[in-house]
Amino acid sequence: MLYANLNAFDFSDYQRIQEAMAFLKVTDLTKTPLGRSHQDGERFYCQTLEYETNSINEYDFEIHNKRLDLHYIVEGEERIDVSPDTNFRPISEYNDERDIQYVETPSNFNQVLLHQGDFILIGMHEPHRTNGFIDHPVHVRKIVLKLGR
User: Fold this and answer.
1) Which candidate in 60, 115, 122, 136 could, as Cys together with 69 as Cys, close a disulfide (CB 3.0–4.6 Å)?
2) Which pLDDT belongs to residue 12?
3) Alpha helices (H) along 3-145
4) Which residues of the chain have pLDDT under 50?
């Protein structure tokens, strides 16, 4: 599944998907170290996270300028809100080192419920917020693959 707005879609941004799928299938994701690993320069790295989900309203929407985010749930479940509207309004300065900027809540967005084994691919400049609980807080182990050009 790819969820995008046609006006904001740039196919060249998505060239790394096949590489990402291969990584997910051949890597023991229960053993990747927390934090950043498997880095290949600016074009690819794996971010392993573990946390307790919380109310989605506790989090701000964010965007990235350099990398796609592929969120894969290894354990647990979570709600992610994502908007195809790339006409966002910043609420923070862009952090080039972390490739992140926080933006106002978009006027329209969709709730995506991810369970163990599910993933979502979020495009560059697409506002999203993560770490929300579905029914109640749970422990999540998640891999976020950062896919650059």
Assistant:
1) 122
2) 75
3) 17-26
4) 1
Q: What is the pLDDT of residues 92-111, one digit of tens each?
A: 999 999 999 999 999 999 99
pLDDT in tens, 38-51: 988 778 899 999 99
Asked whether the beta carbons of 64 and 108 are under 8 A apart, the reply is: no
* Cβ-contact 144, 22 below 8 angstroms: no
Q: What is the DSSP letter of 91?
A: S
Q: Which domains does the chain possess? A: 6-147 (2.60.120.370)
Give the list of residues 6+ apart from residue 65 with CB closer than 8 angstroms, or none.
94, 99, 101, 124, 125
Pairing type for strands 139-147 and 119-122 reads unpaired
Residue 2 confidence (pLDDT)? 64
Q: In what order do the strands lie in the sheet with 110-115?
A: 101-103, 61-63, 128-132, 77-82, 110-115
Closest CA to 103 of 112, 95, 111, 93: 93
